[in-house]
Amino acid sequence: SSYEWIYNNGADGEPELVNGEESIEELYNDDFSDKNITEYDLTAEEVEWSLEKGESVNAWTFNGTVPGEPLRVTEGDVLKVNLKNNLDVPVTIHWHGVILPNVMDGVPDLTQEAVQPGETFTYQFEAKDPGTYWYHSHEHSSLQVDKGLYGSLVVEERDQKNDYNNEQILILDEWATDGDRESLTNMPGTMMGAMSGDGEADTKEMYDTYTVNGKSGNSIEPIIIGESEKTRIRIINAGYQVQKLNFPKGSVKVIAYDAADTIDSNNEANIIEVAPGERVDLEVRNNQSEPWLISNLTSINKGVNANIPVITDKDVDYANLEPNQADEGKVIDGATIGNQDLIFEDTPDEVDVSYEMDLSMGMQMGEGMTFQINDNEYPNTPPIKVEDGDIVKVEIKNNGRLNHPMHLHGHRFQVVSKNGRKFEEPMVKDLIHVKPGETFEIYFKADNKGEWLFHCHDNNHADLGMMTIVDYK
Ligand code: C2O
Ligand code: CU
Description:
With 473 residues, the protein is mainly β. It has five helices and 31 strands.
């Protein structure tokens, strides 16, 4: 299609104008002359990263830390990021959840050429919608995101509605500290323990250490919330496992999922689930005077779980807290609470495109296990062909035994039903976690031209075939 190679990476790191565009702005599809620009330099580089005392891993990072440098921009401003690649493998940056022009989406071989070792590339786009996002390399994601090439991106509301005492970002991930991770991810179709029945065992066996903001065990930073004060916590799941966090009853309310504000009901729970790639924003009130732990209920086969201490004051001693492992109470996940601003007031009666997406496992001679959409592996999966302005319906069905958190680039979609039952209050998301046996119906407006990935955010599944493209004719 016409989106192939619409630019090359210029020597100065700016895209080159190769299709007769007048200016960079035209290429970026916007005029930034009257806008504030927030600029960052991000260097992809290798470091020895300490998870905690005595435990370090070889990591690939943006600016030397895991997670990479946190990015923050105000709604309506332009985010400009100068990427320099000091690794000896190509990288890109994908802006997960951000609605932006296709050329800035950071997907190698689809929206840009990957940024080669020693090269630079400048990303630039207007941050239109406030919320919690993240960025990560989209080159060989199963390896590169796993090795640390990710960070948070917060788009702040221009007129802040809420006044929280403070704000915390928690990026969840998991690491393999023993064994050669690289050979594990490069092993096609690694299916260790795939049949254990909890939906996510194929990669779980590799990991022994859960992390919060790149730290594990006693090195996890406590969160300080004064007694009866409240704070905003933005949680991003950058890993492979569905994470379940347990809070004391009455302490937590969900205020957004995937950067969309939730409606103000049905949002109190004590167990919050976050699928790979998903984000959830919480309002957490410290209703205790003693220190406590946000307890991670996610099962891990061996090794260390990650619990986050909550204390009222930085001088409080929080050693030896007991996690609350009771898996009981109300669970909220990304398909539980409706959103305030919908894409469609009512579910459209008529659609222009209707696509059935069957998710399953497959086998390929010499390759081993693969992951499929409609019985094919990417790039042979059937694309979702749309025209600008179309209303598109996709029915996603998980026929297998593993979890598939499905993520769409460049658009948000409205989740209207689960297993044939309509939601009274639909969700607006960029990722829907489809568990074994589940079917979701989603609708979106094709209003952002380009070629956009739609894929499983278990990046191992994606790299082994579970991807397709929304392709504008
Ligand atoms: Cu987090 Cu293709 O994305
Ligand atoms: Cu999957």
